[in-house]
Specification:
The complex is a heterotrimer of chains A (about 425), B (about 250) and C (about 475). Chain A has about 425 residues and is of the alpha/beta class. Chain A has one domain. Chain A is built from eight helices and 21 strands. In chain A, a hairpin with a 2-residue loop joins strand 2 and strand 3. The termini of chain A are far apart. Chain B is of the alpha/beta class and about 250 residues long. Chain B has a single domain, classed as 3-Layer(aba) Sandwich (Rossmann fold), CATH 3.40.50.300. Chain B has nine helices and twelve strands. In chain B, the strands form three sheets. Chain B has a six-stranded mixed sheet, with helices on both faces. The longest helix of chain B has 15 residues. The termini of chain B are far apart. By secondary structure, chain C is an alpha/beta fold. In chain C, the strands form three sheets. In chain C, strands 5, 6, 8, 9, 11, 12, 14, 16, 17, 19, 21 and 23 form a twelve-stranded mixed sheet that branches. Chain C has a ten-stranded mixed sheet with strand order 4-3-7-10-13-15-18-20-22-24. In chain C, a hairpin with a 2-residue loop joins strand 3 and strand 4. The longest helix of chain C is centred in the last third of the chain and has 17 residues. The chains are: A alpha/beta (about 425), B alpha/beta (about 250), C alpha/beta (about 475). At the A-C interface, strand 20 and strand 21 of A face strand 23 and strand 24 of C. Strand 20 of chain A pairs antiparallel with strand 23 of chain C, so a sheet runs across the interface.
Chain lengths: ~425, ~250, ~475
Amino acid sequence: MTTTLPNWFTARQEAAQKRYEATPAPKRGDETWRFSNLKQLDFAGFVRGADVSSANTADIVARSTGIEKTAAKFVFANDTLIHSETNIPAGVIALPLSEALVSHPELVEKHFMRQETRLGSAKFAAWHEAMVSNGLFVHTGDNVEIEDPIEVHHWISGQNTVIFPHTLVVTGTSSKVRVIDIFRSSDDITPGLAIAFNDLCAGKNSQLDYVAVQALNEVTRIIQIHETATARDASAKGFILNTGASWARNECLSRLEGPGSRSDMLSVSIPAREQEYDQRTFQHHVSEGAYSDLLFKNSLYDNSKTIFSGLIFVDEGAHHTDAYQTCRNLMMSDTCEANSMPGLEINADQVKCSHGSTSSQIHDDEIFYLRARGIDPVRARQLIARGFSVEVVERLAHEATEELVLRFVDDKFAHIAGGGA
Amino acid sequence: MSLHIQNLHATLEDGTEILKGVTLEIPKGEVHAIMGPNGSGKSTLSKVIAGHEGYVVTGGAVTIDEEDIAEMSIDERSRAGIFLAFQYPSEVPGVSNANFIRAALQARLPKGEEIDAVAYYKSLYAKMDILEMDRKFTGRAVNEGFSGGEKKRNEILQMMMLEPKYCILDETDSGLDIDALKIVAKGVNAMRSPDRGMLLITHYQRLLDYIKPDHVHVMAEGRIVRSGGPELALELEKDGYEFLKEAALA
Amino acid sequence: MSYEDTTALLDEETHDAINVDRTKGDFTFPERHKFDAGYGLSSKTVDYICDVKGEPQWVRDFRHKALAVFESKPMPTNWATEDLNNINFDEIRYYLSDGEKPKRSWDEVPPEVLETFERLGIPEQERAFLAGVEAQYDSEAAYSNMKEELTKQGVIFVNSTEGLKEHEEIFRPWFGKVIPTSDNKFSALNSAVFSGGSFIYIPKGVKLKQPLQAYFRINSENFGQFERTLIIADEGAEVMYMEGCTAPKFETATLHSAVVELVALKGAKIQYVTVQNWSSNVFNLVTKRGLAMEDAEVRWIDCNIGSRLTMKYPGVIMKGRRARGEVISIALANTGQHQDTGAKMIHAADETTSNIVSKSISVGEGRATYRGQVHIPKHLKGCKNNTECDALLINSNSRTDTYPAITVRGNRHATQHEASVSQVSEEMLFYMQQRGISEGAAMSLAVNGFINDLVREFPMEYSVELKRLIDLEMEGSVG
């Protein structure tokens, strides 16, 4: 098999490298970095990871457990494919990006990083584009429904290793697919960095569900850029779980490009200790008659900090838009900090938009109710805190995926003092 | 002197024809009822007469007291004497009933003339008493948080205050329990007069037990297919709209 | 009978009493200024103002320092509109006055100034329901008077120049403390060239039954009005202050950049009511903030109509336990206007409560923006914030934006924020028109209904005026 990368790709990478060098780093006063801790953006000293030794490879593959029934499963360590199983139906391409670039260069080119990064990380998107070498490429034909999820594990291994995982999913008309990305570190003590990008292109009347589970170790940082585009009558659902990393930045942009299309943007974050999660979202209604609904929930423990900045943007002419945005913060300690910036920019008519943001604690009467049923107060708080997240997880509407996500949620609670109480 | 609908054709904006030649004359002093199955065009007829911009009149005419209303805007038709009691009255948040009705009455006065507030409230309260409405009602926003019965009573109250020449009541009985229906009927009957024509649009005979019509018409597929006296309503109640199918077969 | 019905009955009388609209405000008299600082801004301008006003050295130093801050700060276009770059500071005159002291009687006011305020209805309002009035014409107050009994109670109501000269011991400790010079570019500008505005002191326990009013009138073209207001309510005192603003419609841009500082000491209550009705050539860039000590309350009740660009985010720093802050705001943006308004709530003590209710209406090509900041730092407990902002769009060309920012630390607080955008529905208009109400009147009713619950927060006389101004704005916006 030849491994020559297509010319367009090498050209894009060279251009991106120049763009990366030319783009200034975010600075104080940038609206897209308001409340952010810019010190987190010092990535000096991080290098591409070396190949992982075969002993470690076996260990990582063994630990790459997800859901039982998958349509395909890929395991990457430091952006290198170390394991794959596939059971993909005919008419569907589901390959590591490095292979797809060689075997389907035109298809990849058509969809590869087509949207403008507008939520602050243009520099890091350029860095990703310059450095990306692997990830997942999915392209379904028309009228194909893939029952079981495609599951991808991205591992970071080795001191000061940076990875650039990429996920590109393109659905044909009336097809259906679900992709799960799981980001993890090979141990709990080695610092790492991930500059991840995922691009979802939901074709007409198709259904594209995407889940990202971020459970890196707590000395690793990650920037994840999520871009979604929905064609007429398409439905895209994006879900992000943040339990790991010392600092995570999510930029989620959904472009509603066709009438009747729908985008659900969901997130559960459970920061504890000194963790900081910084999330920026953009619901871009380009077409009239589309629907978007965002629900982000944060449960904050210890000295953790979250930032939510969301914008519903309705273009001129995108009439009859329905757009909703909700961010809820559950404050579980006296020293946690939640920042919310829910925004609206409406330039069209006959629009129904609303946003809501709340920060509150568990109320005494909720605890009282559970105690009156014989549940001790610590357990009562655990139950209520978990229930707060479960409400979002249930929106996935796929039992096995929900179970997987909840496994990571419960694992996180188990690593918080008081079991999340 | 009548509300005269002559061979009226109307379509939706997308061209779908809903009214396919309706002819009907409601002289002053008479009460007419239109009955018919769902989707027969009854409610559309009322909206087209009121001038709703979602329909296009493609043929025929509506006149009141010999005057063609085709060129009149919605509010001009209202001021010319047409009143529509809505099946689903709209909410007007933040605008009190008292101010709303007052604004409607004010719109009927020549420029520069103002409503006498004392007389206005006297008249409003008298009519609210007939409809057994609480005084607090005047301060509430129009239809906001109203029960079905309250909304319908409010429609009748507005009708009584505006004293129109021709009243069209669109499914006024829907969503009413029997007590509320009786109260609404009392209000409507109080409005019957030799100077006023009325058109009741209803799916059920029940309303006609309390408001006796002079003539009953059956509408189907965008046309009046049968007309008769009050006995027609009883017949429909007993036999339903089955005859429509037979008529279609024959 | 409900409150609203009463308003309806009073409508007629009050109509005539307060006859202010923009057509009424759109007139001008020839300038007769004895003192004119000329065009452009430099340290000479600042010295000129100090000299004319005969100010003490500490004020001169304050102004010069502020000028340096103003010059060093960039335009805040990293978050605000680029339209700010269209202000040409060299084409503005910073001080214009006839050199007369404010008069205590309308009889002594120069005839054209008197006629101006009579046409705006000010003397009549004073007789009808006000405890005191200050009327500013360009840079200085032309008239300033207060009911005699208030003077006896120790209430001070003078312009800022008199305040800093005659009452330095009360004025100086608070001046520039609630809003530091460097707060933003325009607070620095105001600090450099301020003139006019009110200084008010309400002694301990004195509760004013009637409001004090200031009226700000721009008469001259290419002019910047920079009034400076400081209100101090001593322990347990209560005051309501109302301000109105108009300017004629000039061809060129006019600048209004005020700074307003409120200090509510323990248990005091200050309500600050604004109904601005600027013509649409005015850049209105105002900084307003209040300090509320223990058990004190500061309320901003704000209605913004007109202007080319308004940027105004009244704030409250709740510094004492159980202090309360509130912003009630209505903004109406018509074609050629951008209302960029909001609120800032800084919780700096336990059990403090803030409430923000903002409603905006965008008509034609108008643009309304809400920006909010709610800040609850750590080590506090029992703080509450409620924010509601609703926007109504009237035409498909209008635009509305909402950008709140809420920071909460710790688990002993509660905040909630809700915002919505809606339209006047076609079905609602059909319903109203079917009752004989014209499309324009129906739209007016719907808009008034949308803000009705906020209009009630304004004093009766202002709420009637407000409804009428909105009717005027809505005329011709449909069809």
